[in-house]
Write a structure and sequence with these properties.
Elements (H helix, E strand, L loop, with lengths): L1 H8 L8 E5 L11 H8 L8 E4 L5 H15 L4 E9 L19 H6 L16 H11 L4 H20 L25 H5 L21 E9 L1 H7 L5 E10 L8 H13 L8 E4 L5 H10 L12 H4 L6 H15 L4 E8 L3 E9 L1
Parallel strand pairs: 1-2, 1-3, 6-7
Antiparallel strand pairs: 3-4, 5-8, 7-8
Helix pairs in contact: 3-12, 9-10
Organism: Actinorhabdospora filicis
GO molecular function, one term: acyltransferase activity, transferring groups other than amino-acyl groups
Protein name: Acetyl-CoA acyltransferase
């Protein structure tokens, strides 16, 4: 990933001041600061440092925020914002510690004791699947609506692959040139037959939730002045970036508040935004976001989302930004917005401006 970034940008990595890499399950082969290990594995100079961060699903989107802040403040000139998650090799949840109270202490458990949707068994009292069921109920989203949305994600992703929309942003690995999770033969009927593991008579299934997948993504962040000095051509700029906290029980409605906050801070309206990437952790997340914001459905996840393309946790924020930037430039869109819900009840939102 880092080697491909340097090659495509035409950058000598000696100029990189830092690599900030999102990763959620920082154990096993992703432990001991995978950002620094990735720098060394890529053959970059030993002088290039790296740090790994965890804001759950928003880890690499937060890496982008930190990278932008570093170059804007003058602490650095060139920073790589990246993310990685090998979920087939480092299972989700493998970083959760064991023992009484872990990973939540008594104070957190006492605060939410008796709240609907909170489990009493160890080790984790909060469950995103349960939160997704609660969101679906809040907005009256039935199973057919969710499964139809999921099918549309697969169809849009398949069409985008066929049109070559992802070609410029993907680095082939072991001969694999496209995302493998897209199900071209899916139907609403097939999706309706899947179990609902979070609630006996529920609406959330593996079919209308994001896929467990492996992935990585990276963006090069610098200033206009440094880009000119290095002979680089900027593609977009980070216009506005925010993060919010939200209810850790429901856990998935943070993108609504994050969107409101980023628009208010940017001075833009939703009508100014030509494309939105709202991470498809579960189908009720983007559908609920649409209901609350009144946004144009045609502008949301135009190339499909995590239900079809996968959600490699720590990598997803950087991947969304990469896809959004390429889509904006290909379609003459000036402003794009990305947002995603995050474990523990948080959400990042970023407005990007094509150059």
């Amino acid at each position: 990933m880092l080697s491909a970034l340097a090659e495509r940008a035409g950058l000598d990595p000696v100029h990189v001041d830092d690599v900030i890499m999102g990763c959620v399950s920082q154990v096993g082969e992703q432990s001991w600061n995978i950002a620094r290990n990735a720098v060394l594995a890529a053959g970059w100079p030993e002088s290039v440092p790296g740090t790994s961060i965890d804001r759950q699903c928003g880890s690499s989107q937060q890496a982008l925020h930190f990278a932008a802040a570093a170059v804007i403040s003058g602490q650095a000139d060139v920073v790589v914002a990246a993310g990685v998650e090998g979920m087939s090799r480092v299972p989700m949840g493998s970083s959760v510690s064991q023992g009484v109270g872990a990973p939540y202490g008594d104070k957190v458990r006492e605060r939410y004791a008796g709240v609907e949707g909170v489990a009493t068994e160890l080790p984790i009292p909060f469950n995103q699947g349960v939160g997704a069921e609660m969101l679906a109920a809040r907005w009256g989203l039935d199973r057919t609506t969710l499964d139809t949305f999921a099918l549309e994600s697969h169809l849009k992703a398949a069409a985008a692959i066929d049109a070559g929309a992802f070609t410029a942003e993907i680095t082939p690995i072991a001969g694999i040139k496209t995302d493998e999770g897209v199900r071209r033969d899916s139907t609403v009927e097939k999706l309706a037959g899947l179990k609902t593991p979070f609630k006996a008579d529920g609406v959330i299934s593996a079919g209308n939730a994001s896929q467990i997948s492996d992935g990585s993504a990276a963006l090069l962040v610098t200033t206009s002045e440094k880009a000119r000095e290095l002979g680089l051509t900027p593609l977009a700029r980070v216009h506005t970036a925010v993060v919010v906290g939200s209810d850790p029980v429901v856990m998935l409605d943070g993108p609504i508040a994050a969107t409101q906050k980023v628009l208010a801070r940017s001075g833009l309206s939703l009508a100014d935004i030509g494309a939105y990437e709202v991470n498809e952790a579960f189908a009720p997340v983007p559908l609920g976001w649409l209901k609350e914001t009144g946004a144009d459905p045609a502008r949301m996840n135009p190339l499909g989302g995590a239900i079809a393309l996968g959600h490699p946790l720590g990598a997803s924020g950087a991947r969304l930004a990469t896809t959004l930037i390429h889509h904006m430039r290909a379609n003459g869109i000036r402003y794009g917005l990305q947002t995603m819900c995050e474990g523990g009840g948080m959400a990042n939102a970023t407005i990007l401006e094509a150059l």
